Amino acid sequence: MRFTTLLFCMAVASAATAQDYPAKPVKMLVPYAPGGATDIIARIVAQRLTESLKESFIVENRPGANGNIALEATAKAPADGYTLLVGNVSTNAINENIYADQLTIRPTRDLVGITKLVEIPHIVVANASFPANNIAELIALAKKSPGKMNYASVGMGSYPHLDMERLERAAGIELTHVPYKGGAGQAIPAMIAGEVQVAFFNMASLLPHIKSGRLKPLAAVPAQRLPELPDVPTLAQQGYPGIGTNAWQGLFAPAATPRPVIDKLYAAVARALGQEKDALATKMLTVAVSPSPDEFNALVRRETQAWGDFVREAKIKIE
Fold this sequence. Notes:
The chain is of the alpha/beta class. 45% of the residues lie in helices and 19% in strands. It has a six-stranded mixed β-sheet with strand order 2-1-3-10-4-11, with helices on both faces.
């Protein structure tokens, strides 16, 4: 009888927790400086949640250590739903493998996913004056002068870095990696200026520069050609299927956050992104709400395992 009473009280408390949430401002941590795709989607979601849940959702940028500062801060915050993380494939799938020795947390253990938010298509892009116009020509140039071609990334262990590592291994070429700690906002101007020749980057950041002629696309990462670049073949069509990342952004909370709070946030975010779908599409951000929090967590675990397999196979380690 006492056990039954305890279970009943716990159920009532959980229901009350969800009903009252949020009762004070909620912090949404972004692991990068303002202006990037993660920051953009965080601010859109925060505004919509503020309107629908009648409490302030405040975006707080915590850049540094390739996202690990915000990652650890969220994992170590009270598990009450008042500290959330807008993470992505790098912070929540790759970093667990690349920074295993540096992290004091394990993202798949210490964070719980609420939902995927958006997906962003990626392309292989080059400086406008780069002689190659497709992947075959890029590979031919690289084989003529091993190590002489520079490629940009947003940091060691980021998916633009790892995606190019995959292409190098598959094509048998050697390029020189130039990481930019300032992210795409620093790397893209460097490519336009000719400091680096090629990179994997997201279309949300690249499309204006491609339209202006300052950069040129060599390949699309998605399975199908992009409507915005109908004449650009995919990597699969050019002989390299399975290479490249179509990045996602997702919402996370500390692992022990009550499930009723997770479910309430999931429902509110799904409604919010449904309202923003068309506006986000103009920014090359495709709404991709997960079928449920459980399915999102399963996706993150699968991707963490897959990236771990590649990192170990390629013997990539950040000291």
